[in-house]
Amino acid sequence: MMKSHARNPRQQSPARGRGRVLVLTVALVAVIAGVSVWFSQRNGSADASVSANLPAANSGPAAAEGGGDTGPLTALDKVFLTKVRQAGLWEMPAGRLAQTHASSEAIKRAGMHLLEGHSKLDELDREDSAALSVPIPDQASAEQQGWVEQLKKAKGRDFDQLFVDLLRASHGKIFITIGEVRATTKNTLIRRLATQANNTVQDHMDVLEDTGLVKDSTLDDVASTVPK
């Protein structure tokens, strides 16, 4: 019997096998490419969604009300900048007068605290004024200038008492304003200034009280200005 040389139907030629592998490879690449495009589009949509919800630069209440990115400014904040400036413009001259007109070393010491404290506070106040575009005065109020003139005319113990009367009353009154500003401002620069002013004024009240010349009538005058 002769052996059959017919090809087994289950056997495939090498060329046909390679063709199928190539087709499968192309299909797989197409699938991967499609998935990559889908992910790219999805991520792009997500990024656009996030960007749409981010606040625009210089937007919001801070920019709208003139505080820049440090927070909104109130009318009281602006008044506070003026008060801090004017306080330094008359208290620094008063501190210098204490070095030549006072009879007490305690008064001279208090005068030096005024000079040093308000020099630093005035510098910070001017920096904040420029940063916030809020104009501040270059001279003390008429009343404050009048106090300096009174001090110039006084000498010895009369100077000592007048110095304490005027300075303790003015510090007590501004201390009330500082507390209100510090407790309510939304502006970070004003908050920093109020904190520094609070520390400075507290120190000045302490050294004035150390003189032993603070009278009850002065404290009553300060109390009368506290809002009821």
Q: Helices and strands in order, then pairings?
A:
Layout: H1 14-53, H2 61-64, H3 75-101, H4 105-132, H5 142-153, H6 156-184, H7 188-209, H8 216-223
Please describe the structure with a list of short key phrases separated by commas or semicolons.
mainly alpha, globular, 228 residues, disordered N terminus
Using the CA coordinates, give the radius of gyration.
39 Å
Record field, number of beta strands: 0
Overall shape: it is globular
Number of helices: 8
Mean pLDDT: 80
Instruction: Please mark out the parts with pLDDT under 50 across 5 or more consecutive residues, or reply none.
Output: 1-15, 21-65
Strand content: under 5%
Q: Which class do the helix and strand fractions yield?
A: mainly alpha
SSE pattern: HHHHHHHH
Helix % is: over 70%
Largest sheet: none
What is the straight-line distance between the termini? Answer: 129 Å
What does this structure look like?
- This protein has 8 helices and no strands.
- With 228 residues, the chain is an all-alpha fold.
- The longest helix is centred in the N-terminal third of the chain and has 40 residues, at 14-53.
- The model is unreliable at 1-15 and 21-65 (pLDDT under 50).
